[in-house]
TrEMBL record:
Residue spans crossing the bilayer: 7-26, 32-50
Annotated organism of origin: Gillisia mitskevichiae
Superkingdom: Bacteria
Keyword terms of this UniProt record: Membrane, Transmembrane, Transmembrane helix
Protein name: Uncharacterized protein
Length: 58
């Protein structure tokens, strides 16, 4: 459970940073997507996959 909690906290931090950077237009949209959104999507997908595996084993 601790791994999932850490992952969700990390995901929220990345998405919050993306919102702040996008709001102040510190980088271009392509860079914003490659720096923040794609890693957040990967983390989210891995967390969902991990939960799905745990439900099947139970």
């Amino acid at each position: 459970m601790k791994i999932n909690r850490t992952g969700f906290i990390l995901l929220n931090i990345i998405l919050f940073a993306a919102i702040i950077v996008g709001y102040y237009e510190l980088v271009e949209i392509k860079e914003l997507v490659s720096i923040f959104v794609i890693p957040a999507f990967i983390i989210s997908a891995s967390l969902q996959y991990g939960q799905k595996d745990r439900k099947k084993k139970a």
